Amino acid sequence: MPARVVLLAGGVGGAKLASGLAAQPDPDLTVVVNTADDTDMQGLLVMPDHDTVMYTLAGIVDRDQGWGVGDETYTTLEALGRLGEETWFRLGDRDLATHIARTARLRAGRRLTEVCLELQRSLGVATPILPMTDDPVRTHVRTADGWLAFQDWFVRLRQRPAVSEIRFDGIEAARPTAEVLAALEAAEVVVIAPSNPLVSIGPILAVPGLRAAIETAGARGAPIVAVSPIVAGKALRGPADRMLADLGLESTARGVARLYAGLAGGFVLDSADADQEADVEAMGLATLVVDTIMVDDTTRRRLAADVLAFAASMAV
Amino acid sequence: MPARVVLLAGGVGGAKLASGLAAQPDPDLTVVVNTADDTDMQGLLVMPDHDTVMYTLAGIVDRDQGWGVGDETYTTLEALGRLGEETWFRLGDRDLATHIARTARLRAGRRLTEVCLELQRSLGVATPILPMTDDPVRTHVRTADGWLAFQDWFVRLRQRPAVSEIRFDGIEAARPTAEVLAALEAAEVVVIAPSNPLVSIGPILAVPGLRAAIETAGARGAPIVAVSPIVAGKALRGPADRMLADLGLESTARGVARLYAGLAGGFVLDSADADQEADVEAMGLATLVVDTIMVDDTTRRRLAADVLAFAASMAV
Question: Among candidates A300, A292, A305, A314, which has minimal Cα distance to A224?
Fold first, then answer.
């Protein structure tokens, strides 16, 4: 019988592992996504991590860039530019429909999780992708120029200024949703995706009550397994390596394992980092060393199968 | 010296005469547009009459259909359809940018007139197009199926059900803007466009204080001239002829003249309706009989020049 899996995920790395897990035989997968990257563009709620996972599971993602909708056009964005609107956040025409529909439904008083589940079903996604919370949480990063909203730093400034501090506005008032708590209560395995530990997984674990719900799952025997987003000292995607270094943390798989050591029971390192396995084991973590780079559907499925087999071995 | 002209306008007919007036030498034109056709689609404020006039004066209108942006695509609308949104109101990708930018600026607390003027300037429109009011007014029509929102009847039901009553929700609380009152105070000619007298010009005149401001202009000598939207018993565009008949009014140029007789001093009939001239004169209106059908830029300019010359002759 397949395990009930809950995957904590950010954007591209989370989406790839989600698609590998969803491609297992009889998958029973729920994804909990970071919402602290969400942003308001031209009055529309844009949810980069949710939408990357949704488009990936719907099979319509732009596979070259890993996010957005494939075969995209930018007609509305160009027209917005002519009207004097900011266009550094590249919203495509197909993608825009998601933000328009979502914002309209939220303005009609609907709940974020409910609206997201509806959009997923419309696109034929069978795996529930749950926002970590229905409450607004927004990451800000401190740079030499002061505090910046996350997407302002991430997209507009292309992650160039070094980050000296991170904060999640709204996190104290945020609560995990009933759907997230129910998924974690039923979870037989919790997987932490190879996503940025600071700004993708960090906010999920910072929602008051959410980390405790994962710990409760762990305490009743559900293995908690994290996959390193750092391979050979480099983030496969995004600025996680530089952020770790700029914050005085070790920008290695071992450095990430240290961040998760109090929560996860198992840690997956890439074969390139086999030399760090002993150090991670010394933190009290079970380890798995495999190829973790997901270049196509086959490698996604294989990594997902490896992670589940590793989790099963831990549960014994 | 050219006259200061204020044009009261609905959609396509108003836009065509506006472009004819704006093409006169040294034009000094202000357009006051109906906003009672405005509607909320997917949470975005759509202003059909304003946008038709704006796109026409910007030279980017779809000339075949008379409204919307030319060379338009519908990528976002198709994606909205896949998400389960209603798509009977055909919002094109370029057009959507207008609604997105406008709605975002209004949500930021800006005033409708201010936002519209900004959009016009971005598109290079030199003629101010003023919403009749900043306050929400929404036309509803009564049919055998009960009361319907205007665009629901106009677009979705293609004007098929007969209309037995018209109401303008919000009209009592609406006020003309400072910009509209200033334009009318300075007006040397007021032109009523060949637009639907019931649902395009009707709401403008029903804004409390607006008709009185036109009458004040008339009392200090500014000619008020209306152009018939009905030619040979047929509306050139839209359902004005059937609406007039369904409401028990005469669906002719003469019938329209009767609606404006208390306000306008002059009335322009098409050559096809020359036989009604005497009846219109008998209402106390000066008359001009000319070709009023605006098939191209030349005929728009010619009708505009004819109307201004007619007004000048009335002022003597």
Answer: A314
The total number of structural domains in chain B stands at 1
pTM of this prediction? 0.94
* Residue B39 Cα, gap to closest chain A Cα (Å): 14
The residue of chain B with its CA nearest to that of A93 is: B76
CA A19 – CA A16 distance, rounded (Å): 5
Q: Which residue in B55, B75, B105 has the most chain A C-beta atoms within 10 A of its own C-beta, making it the best mutation to test that interface?
A: B75
- Structure tokens given for A117: 């589940």
- Closest CA of chain A from B89, distance in Å: 14
Is the CB of A117 inside 8 Å of chain B's CB atoms? no
Domain that holds residue A78: 4-137+171-315
Q: How many CB pairs under 8 A join A and B?
A: 98
A83 with B42: Cβ contact below 8 A: no
The shortest CB-CB distance from A75 to any of B43, B80, B94 is to B94
How many angstroms away from the CA of A145 is the closest CA of chain B?
25
Which two structure tokens, joined as six digits, stand for A289? 């060393």
Radius of gyration of chain A (CA): 19
Chain A: closest CA distance from residue B173 (Å): 24
In a domain, A151, yes or no: no
Q: Is B58 on the interface with A (CB under 8 A)?
A: no
In a mutational test of the A interface, the residue from B46, B71, B100 whose CB has the highest number of chain A CBs within 10 Å is: B100
Alpha helices (runs of H) in B12-123, residue ranges in sequence order? 12-22, 48-58, 75-82, 93-107, 112-122
Q: What is the CATH number of the domain that holds B261?
A: 3.40.50.10680
Q: How many C-beta atoms lie closer than 10 Å to residue B158's C-beta?
A: 10
Q: Are B104 and A75 a contacting pair at CB < 8 A?
A: no
Residue A66 has phi, psi (to 5 degrees) of: 90, -10
pLDDT-derived band of residue B2, with 50, 70 and 90 as boundaries? low
Residue B287 included in any domain: yes
B283 inside domain: yes
Q: Do B83 and A123 touch (CB under 8 A)?
A: yes
| In-domain check, residue A160 | no
Cβ contacts (< 8 Å) between A125 and chain B: which residues?
none
Question: Tell me: the pLDDT tens digits for A128-164?
Answer: 999 999 999 999 999 998 999 999 999 999 999 999 9
- Determine the Cα–Cα distance for residues A239 and A139; give it in Å rounded to an integer: 15
Please give the Cα distance from A53 to A59 (Å, whole number). Answer: 10
ipTM of the complex: 0.92
Question: What digits encode the pLDDT tens for the residues B14-60?
Answer: 999 999 999 999 999 999 999 999 999 999 999 999 999 999 999 99
Query: In terms of Cα–Cα distance, which of B8, B4, B66, B31 is closest to B259?
Result: B8
| Cα-based distances in Å from A67 to A7, A60, B264 | 18, 10, 60
Residues in CB range of B65: below 8 A, 6 or more apart: none
Q: Strand (E) positions, chain B?
A: 4-9, 28-33, 39-41, 44-46, 129-131, 138-143, 146-149, 165-169, 189-192, 224-227, 230-231, 234-235, 266-270, 286-290
